[in-house]
Amino acid sequence: MANIYDVAKAAEVSPATVSRVLNGGSVSSERAARVRAAAEELGFRPNRVARGLRRQRSDVLALIISDIENPFFTALARGVEDVARASNLSVVLCNADDDPEKEAEYLDVALAEHMAGVVIFPASHAETDVTALLDRGVPVVAVDRSPESATIDTVTADDENGAYAVTRHLLDEGYRRVACITGPRASSAAMVRLRGFLRAHREGEAPRRRPRVAYADFRVRGGYQAMSELLDLAEPPDAVLATNNLMAAGALAALHDRGLRPPEVGVAAFGDTFWSQLVRPALTTVRQPAYEIGQAAAELLLKRRHTPDIEPQRLVLPTRLEIRGSSRRTAATEPTPTAGPAASADAVVGAEQPAGPGQPTGQATGQVRATGRGRLTRPRRPDAMT
Amino acid sequence: MANIYDVAKAAEVSPATVSRVLNGGSVSSERAARVRAAAEELGFRPNRVARGLRRQRSDVLALIISDIENPFFTALARGVEDVARASNLSVVLCNADDDPEKEAEYLDVALAEHMAGVVIFPASHAETDVTALLDRGVPVVAVDRSPESATIDTVTADDENGAYAVTRHLLDEGYRRVACITGPRASSAAMVRLRGFLRAHREGEAPRRRPRVAYADFRVRGGYQAMSELLDLAEPPDAVLATNNLMAAGALAALHDRGLRPPEVGVAAFGDTFWSQLVRPALTTVRQPAYEIGQAAAELLLKRRHTPDIEPQRLVLPTRLEIRGSSRRTAATEPTPTAGPAASADAVVGAEQPAGPGQPTGQATGQVRATGRGRLTRPRRPDAMT
DNA sequence: CTGTTAGCGCCTTCAT
DNA sequence: ATGAAGGCGCTAACAG
């Protein structure tokens, strides 16, 4: 494979001139043309490894996530990618699989490869250690939570207010015993969301009794079991908030198995996904601005890459409440339709359309991208968040 | 950051000795211990960029996929990863987004970074060009289809027989006008699946009339429109096969909007996903062995890495038919249940359980991994494929 | 604007 | 078993 010396020889210039042509140094247009022609002729591709060694920095950015199967991350990845590509950086995805050890390996790779930067969704608050990267000047931005090991740029969704808003919504719909299925106590996300849930209960005009909280494992099965146990109580809840989409799926299955059907029992969930609009009735969710988080993280990275010494920032992005049939009690008290099982339960607020013709496409291929591309033709409700 | 010279000095040996300790050369155990201690002390991390430059090869493997949001790829990625990690290779994911240009960029990166190998799901049969990689000795394995530009190792699912089997199943269930919603004519996957569909029709005891085929775009919206048009025909189909999961979602929505409900109209789809078991009734699918494909691809890559000159291989892996409520006409002719809209439509074949407690978890976290880990406790039906 | 030169960190002969 | 030395391909500093 040709290198710059070969090109230089063919173009009858020095290697430095070839390098300048490649990297935008000042070269007479005549020589530059000769270089380009020679490079083309020889099929020359600059060797990034050598360049990286010399420059002590590559132009590849690592995005380390904990679960590639989670739609949140796919949207996040697009946000990172779109911003990075605009700055001529490539993004590689590393799937740490929620395993601190695997994550450490990828952090090692990022370090040893002198990557341009790392966007990381830390597998663990305590164990994730990014100091080695920082010591070597590799910018690191954390998403969702920040590692204990260092104070760094962080981008998070405003989960607490999201949980608060959706809980308020359930209470406002007239549900009286709203329960929460949340994740393990060790998960800060689970705790933050729970906090918002509890705050909404404390604030009501009439003080309410302490709401039921079930701790599960962020998985479908856990959601199923938690919901089942809640329904077995002497005073079962009449609505439930699941703090992630998998547990919501489990909760829906549990309800279904007992012949209960939202919004008879109200259901809402954290995390808007592909199937949120696909199930009948469609599921009320708190949408996390995954794409925007990715964008913001990449932007912070680029900023810090340019000016390493600015103060670490903490960005908190608002969530959005997507109110759908699963939590609209009003729809449930209407007469049951005859045509199809859920023909009216799909009715949703305002200008939103039923899950049929158009919207699901947006969801499937990444609704969040729509924002970036201006393809979001549906009138947007104002954010339910303050 | 410390380099081997620093370590060598601290350990009072030569840099070559340090290198040998790192890479398993012969070093006296006493010196080796000194080197290790010094390396530990200095927090030394070998610089992979320099190593890559010297060795002309990295130990990172690229997986270039066309759509990170497609569950097929997430499972595929796990398969690649698990095999690669066993050989101490890291895997980075590159999301080419079905864009040949983006794909070319990532191929470029893989080339310029001297990656250990590339597993690629080619965005285009015609445009994807991997010759540059091959010329430089970077092994490339194609998944699903092989690029026109070269004959290389390829791993595919047996889509034609999968389509054949599921179509047979629909016919055997007694559906008489089975239509197919397939992808664009330019997509070889769409054409191969269609071929299986048509073959099943030709083979029946009684020759059947030529079945309806709708060409759509592999997206939800396209599936919706195609289904709508099929239903508008004078003789609408009583069953439909969608050749990917997104179009299936669209088709389901279209049926729903007309008050039709599977299995009244039979529905089956290519691609088993998270929500296949979540919808009611659960969706009959042709499961593609994504994880296994990933494994096989990585294994081919490793093999070729070691022995570059073996003949290119073509592996074809069997699909599996997952029969669920959406295509079981017998269930549909039973009296409509009173408790909940879908209480009985969930009944599924054999030992398979309803979508509640356990199975969805397996799905959500990657059913295919279960196979690898031996966690698949449910009795397996024999493969419907021959 | 252009060429010469040194060296990024490592591995790998080649000697010993 | 060990050390010395060259060079992978590129860029940045310095001269001209």
TrEMBL record, chains A, B:
The keyword Cytoplasm does not apply. Residues 326-386 are annotated as: Disordered. One of its GO terms (molecular function) is transcription cis-regulatory region binding. Residues 2-55 form the HTH lacI-type domain. InterPro entries: HTH_LacI (IPR000843), LacI/GalR-like_sensor (IPR046335), Lambda_DNA-bd_dom_sf (IPR010982), Peripla_BP_I (IPR028082). Keywords: DNA-binding, Repressor, Transcription, Transcription regulation. Residues 328-374 have a biased composition (Low complexity). SUPFAM superfamilies: lambda repressor-like DNA-binding domains, Periplasmic binding protein-like I. The keyword DNA-binding applies. It comes from the Bacteria. Pfam families: LacI (PF00356), Peripla_BP_3 (PF13377). CDD domains: HTH_LacI. PANTHER family: HTH-TYPE TRANSCRIPTIONAL REPRESSOR PURR-RELATED, LACI-RELATED TRANSCRIPTIONAL REPRESSOR. This is LacI family transcriptional regulator.
